[in-house]
Design a protein that fits this description.
The chain is mainly alpha-helical. The protein has one domain. Helix content is about 75%, strand content about 0%.
Length: about 200
């Protein structure tokens, strides 16, 4: 009788990725500033991006840059699949996963920038990226076949590296935004404090 590879020892990747997705999501929700109503994030992104782009200001340029980024990442991914680049060039997978994490984190911050500014906190983005990345690994486990011939060790290493690169990309964005928020909160050099004696 033929056994599906999903029920081999490699099931630990699917189950483990599911667990990481749930824990990442719950952790993200516990962090100050996490946006409300996650089921509305996608419609909120669409409405916000269209409204911002129509204003034709600096934010519109950022949105256009993120749209271009998304197109590039998508093109790199599908080129990797159709041309066999993923198996030919070892770092291609690292590139696409880190760029994806970066892009998704940037979209999350830009979409929810009012909450980020209100709470002065953006660190909910990192565990959110972990949860989204792990969810994608679950999708691959269930619907893709590229891993069917892999050993458990190869599959675990690939999954851990993918999640690590997604998280790295998201952490870069979060660190930049957090540094920016910190710089905004610092008193200007040379300005007098209210208690400054003349």
């Amino acid at each position: 009788m033929f056994a599906l590879p999903h029920f081999s020892s490699r099931i630990v990747v699917g189950v483990g990725s599911s667990g990481i997705a749930v824990v990442g999501w719950l952790f993200a929700r516990s962090i100050r500033g996490f946006p409300t109503d996650p089921h509305l994030w996608l419609p909120r992104l669409v409405v916000r991006s269209v409204a911002d782009i129509r204003r034709l200001d600096r934010i519109a340029v950022v949105w256009m840059g993120l749209i271009a980024w998304s197109v590039i990442v998508t093109a790199l991914h599908f080129a990797g699949l159709t041309l066999g680049i993923y198996s030919a060039i070892s770092w291609w997978d690292l590139l696409t996963h880190s760029m994806s994490g970066f892009g998704i984190a940037a979209l999350a911050v830009l979409t929810h920038r009012d909450r980020v500014a209100m709470y002065g906190s953006v660190w909910w983005v990192v565990p959110t990226i972990v949860a989204i990345g792990a969810g994608f690994e679950v999708y691959e486990f269930v619907f893709k076949a590229f891993w069917h011939e892999w050993t458990l060790q190869k599959y675990v290493v690939d999954t851990v590296v993918d999640l690590g690169m997604n998280t790295l990309g998201g952490t870069v964005v979060t660190s930049i935004v957090s540094s920016y928020l910190t710089a905004l909160d610092r008193p200007q050099m040379g300005s007098k404090s209210p208690n400054h004696a003349e």
